[in-house]
Amino acid sequence: MNHFVSVADVPDIPALVSRALAYKNDPYQDVTLGERRRIGMLFLNPSMRTRLSTQVAAQQLGMEAVVFNVGSEGWALEFEEEAIMSGNTVEHVKDAAPIMGKYFDILCIRTFPSLKNREDDYSELYINQFIKYAGIPIVSLESATLHPLQSFTDIITITEQLALQGKLDTATGKPARKPKIVLTWAPHVKPLPQCVANSFAQWVNAWGEADFVITHPEDYELEPSFTKGATITHDQDEALKDADFVYVKNWSTFNDYGKIYVNDPEWMLTNEKLALTNNAKVMHCLPVRRNVELSDEILDGPNSIVTTQAGNRVWAAQAVLSELIRRK
Amino acid sequence: MNHFVSVADVPDIPALVSRALAYKNDPYQDVTLGERRRIGMLFLNPSMRTRLSTQVAAQQLGMEAVVFNVGSEGWALEFEEEAIMSGNTVEHVKDAAPIMGKYFDILCIRTFPSLKNREDDYSELYINQFIKYAGIPIVSLESATLHPLQSFTDIITITEQLALQGKLDTATGKPARKPKIVLTWAPHVKPLPQCVANSFAQWVNAWGEADFVITHPEDYELEPSFTKGATITHDQDEALKDADFVYVKNWSTFNDYGKIYVNDPEWMLTNEKLALTNNAKVMHCLPVRRNVELSDEILDGPNSIVTTQAGNRVWAAQAVLSELIRRK
Amino acid sequence: MNHFVSVADVPDIPALVSRALAYKNDPYQDVTLGERRRIGMLFLNPSMRTRLSTQVAAQQLGMEAVVFNVGSEGWALEFEEEAIMSGNTVEHVKDAAPIMGKYFDILCIRTFPSLKNREDDYSELYINQFIKYAGIPIVSLESATLHPLQSFTDIITITEQLALQGKLDTATGKPARKPKIVLTWAPHVKPLPQCVANSFAQWVNAWGEADFVITHPEDYELEPSFTKGATITHDQDEALKDADFVYVKNWSTFNDYGKIYVNDPEWMLTNEKLALTNNAKVMHCLPVRRNVELSDEILDGPNSIVTTQAGNRVWAAQAVLSELIRRK
Fold first, then answer.
1. Which chains have at least 3 CB atom pairs separated by less than 8 Å from chain A?
2. Which of A213, A255, B104, C218 is the most buried (most CB within 10 A)?
């Protein structure tokens, strides 16, 4: 593993899941591994769980994590090649990134999409420029189109739940039978990136151990290269039937990019809808708009595993960082 | 001690004072105590001394302190139960707090009052919701109505001064005779919380080792449950007479909540007024508006102990954190 | 060395350069030196390289670095003596600085000039007030008129380049023959401080091992006390002739203070101009406005050493911090 920006960087998902769960069992087992190593954490956008869980993971590996909020502590970066920088951007990534490569062993970056220009966002220019110029491993803390630490956490969490339910083949680390996993769109008050949905689809498909269904209203189709392999339906009730896991998430439109079309509150998951499932565990990446995306009754009920899921962010980050350190 | 949000959390004030002074004497004596422990420090509002002194205290206990500025690095939290989150708040404390409980061993929080709705502020909803949902010890870095780390520091500082003056019974750690302590209101340019005054009153009363007088102009009465036990007077000169310690602080009105009524510059402490006292030591929590709240001549004069007091913030925080670690 | 705010604080420049290069060769050789020591890093203005390189340097010395963004995490400081603080400033440096002196072993401060009032800026009131009141060593992370960590880095970088070229007398650590060093003004889109130019001039002059030329358009004269000893010319081509090092930097006017007069794009360094030099190495403190201050062809070409230079910021900071620790 040279970088961690997409599932394509991971040669063996179940092996990485095993490592993460081993850290959960014994957090400080590799506390000397990161000695005299540093990660830089660059935030072009806000973050809570990703920020904190990565700091915790670094500490448990004995590494120093240095946080830098690019906007408020520094200045606007330029990402376009050959730019004549007479505008608002103060420093080009071509100049900033190689210096990060001198100060740190691993560079972690969060950068959101504009939601204004699909082609630009889906080119992943920002994170790709850091890969191109930093000269050290890059870890995505969520980029314009993907959120791999979240999705890796999701696979860890599903695996862990299956193990708790006695449904995991412990020899292979794979499900004894494929669980039905449903990704369902949910309403929201403002247009959100497609990252979490894209990335979850990408990881579940790459993992290949699920009967995977995506459901959303018309007009909310996702980028096909990420969803390919999943069953896609506009009928939420049909999708939820016999589900083992329901992943709830809002996203804005992909085709007519970054818009909210229908925002039907009927799409919010309730206990009534949960009754259609196979007593499914309910997941969400957080933050969640209560009683808009997800009802209190679900979030406060016995089927929600969102806190466990968010807690697992630490072990995902720790497994990824440890892989990148060992690589060097 | 399960939390530290009020004097009510402290079973034995003199014992905690002794521990703090022991740390002042030997800062690193418990440097292994906090190994592999982490505190999260959440700032919903700005902070300098509290922030820095707590970070220093954590380091001296061998702990990692992770700072998170909720507003600028994250997003607005919701605290109301059953809220339909279609407004500006992005995440409910019910979801955020338990995750902090997974990432940290102790959670420290600063949250100011609105000064708009007294009932809301005095319900201490924010910090109480963290206590309810985080599942780990909560330390107040100043809340809507109290500032316990400051007030604990104030008792430490008074105790230390009495010891320096040979007026402390070293066997009990208590004053040989009760010093006269005066809390006096001072002018300011904007409406401030009542926290420091409430909390100082609460701690001096709980400590029970002082002749305690509070003086302020009419209309600046504080919440009686905090001041009960103190003598209250509108005559500042009368109050200052023979005082051993004068604590200077502005606060806004409590009854007609959050207002500035009279703002008479005559209430600013001067050397002329100090002459009424028993050569009193002058205290202030800082930041202080020079020549508005307190004159240069006092702050730069021999009776001011505000720097010593602010320095003692470290030992207060260290004593509290060490108690909370030992508890676990 | 008691502070580090100007070249005047450095008794022996080549010795400090040697120490920095020794750290570059073996970064952790003094990792126990800073044990149980802390630096506070106060930012009144944004910073990237200076911030990160100083944190890295502190870590490599085994010290804790505590960052505090004064504006966003705290509040506005007052620097004028005898101020009646009824305006926007919340805390006086007379009160804040001595407390920093209690919390930290070394205090590092970044503070920019206003560019509105030359006399005020050149009085260096802010950093001098910290020196006056903190009671601990002060390190400038760039002040109103100087940027000594940058300039020290620049001397390190020049020395290192000369060594690579076999042009350094290894016995003395000094050049075998004086290299020609040219500081050239460059265009920019907004008025910038004179700090980097002032400071570079001050250090090259104090170092005394160069044939030093400064070139800029009319009206961009710098403060003579810093430039004294350099040849000053308005003819850039003449200046560049046979140069071994070209330092490119924009600054605003000094006499009619803080203005942009001519902003002729012809002053941007290009390969055509570089051809006039002795195959000069090109330096810049960064951030750089590409294709405004410096062309892509130069920055991406073989003569640019800006990344090496920025990387050397770590070793400069580490040498300075280690000197200040040893002093205590």
1. B, C
2. B104
| E strands, chain A, in order | 38-43, 64-69, 77-78, 91-92, 106-110, 138-140, 168-169, 174-175, 180-185, 211-215, 231-233, 245-249, 281-283
Q: Encode burial over A107-139: b for 16+ CB neighbours within 10 A, e otherwise.
A: bbbbbbbebeebeebbebbbbbbbbebbebbbb
Residues 6 or more apart whose Cβ sits within 8 Å of residue C250 = C185, C186, C187, C188, C192, C293
Interface of B with A (CB under 8 A): 36, 38, 40, 64, 66, 68, 72-75, 78, 82-87, 90-92, 94-96, 98-100, 102-103
Q: Sorting pLDDT into bands at 50, 70 and 90, what band is A71?
A: confident
Domains of chain A: 7-146+313-327 (3.40.50.1370), 150-311 (3.40.50.1370)
Angle between helix A13-25 and A313-327 (nearest 10) = 110
Closest alpha carbon within chain C to A101: C311
Nearest to C283 by CA among C160, C202, C183: C183
| pLDDT score of C328 | 54
Contact at CB, C74 and B46, closer than 8 angstroms: yes
- Could you read off the pLDDT of C44-77 as tens digits, one per residue? 999 999 999 999 999 999 999 999 999 889 999 9
Please say if the pLDDT value at position A69 is more than 80: yes
Instruction: Check the annotation: does B92 bind a ligand.
Output: no
Is B292's CB within 8 Å of C38's CB?
A: no
Inter-chain residue contact A92 with C286, CB threshold 8 Å = no
Q: Count other C-beta atoms under 10 Å from residue C164's C-beta.
A: 11
pLDDT score of C326? 94
Beta strands in A136-283, from DSSP E residues, in sequence order: 138-140, 168-169, 174-175, 180-185, 211-215, 231-233, 245-249, 281-283
pLDDT digits (tens, 9 = 90+) for C14-39: 999 999 999 999 999 999 999 999 99
Interface test with C, best of B189, B248, B289 (most C CBs within 10 A): B289
Q: Contact C113/C195 with Cβ under 8 angstroms?
A: yes
Has residue C327 got a pLDDT over 90?
A: no
Per-residue pLDDT tens digits for A206-242? 999 999 999 999 999 999 999 999 999 999 999 999 9
A102/C307 CB distance under 8 A: yes
**CA C307 → CA A97, A134, B290, C252, distances in Å?**
10, 11, 46, 25
d(CA B103, CA B76): 20
**Partner-chain contact C68 B52, CB within 8 Å:** yes
Nearest beta carbon to residue A103 from set C53, C287, C289: C53
Nearest residue to C285 (alpha-carbon basis) of C53, C8, C1, C42: C53
- Provide mean pLDDT across the span A47-69: 97
Task: Say yes or no for a CB contact (<8 Å) between A299 and B95.
Answer: yes
Is B188 marked as a binding-site residue? yes
Mean pLDDT across the stretch B96-125?
A: 97
Q: Which of C66, C75, C99 sits opposite B311 (nearest CB)?
A: C99
Tens of pLDDT, residue by residue over A150-177, are 999 999 999 999 999 999 998 888 999 9
Cβ within 8 Å, pair B95-A189? no
Of C82, C87, C103, the CB nearest to B53: C103
**Other C-beta atoms lying within 10 Å of the C-beta of residue C47:** 22
Give binding residues of C for N(2)-succinyl-L-ornithine as ranges: 142, 188, 249, 289
pLDDT band at A328 (very low <50, low <70, confident <90, very high): low
User: Looking at beta carbons, which residues of chain B come within 8 Å of C100?
Assistant: 52
pLDDT digits (tens, 9 = 90+) for C162-185: 999 999 998 888 999 999 999 999
